[in-house]
Model the fold of this input.
Amino acid sequence: MPHNTKRIKTDIEGKAAPQVWNDDIDDYQANNGRHGAASMYQLGSIVHDAWSGSANATKTFTKQCFGFALKNDGAGDVVVTIGTLTFTIKAGESFNGNFEPFSEITIATTSAYRALVAR
Done:
């Protein structure tokens, strides 16, 4: 459900408490940081999936992802498509980047690689 279908959490006096929307639990939750600060994490910094391969592959994810990294361990090119962006990672090169939200990656290669996706 979208966030606008749930009530904001309140404190003992009925005032809105510091909180954030959490898609995983489909509800608001207290925003408990340290030393009085709000907690946060940078989008694209929590690893969601990791794999290796040496052939064409399409990976679909159940949650929106923001980060992608790949190390080309082989001798050929690895061509990656995320959304409308297609880019090439040459033999021996590494790539690490953040993107607009995505849920699918296509890899075209015969070169060995290691990859991960972050949300």
Observations:
- The chain has a mean pLDDT of 89.
- DSSP finds no helices and eight strands in the chain.
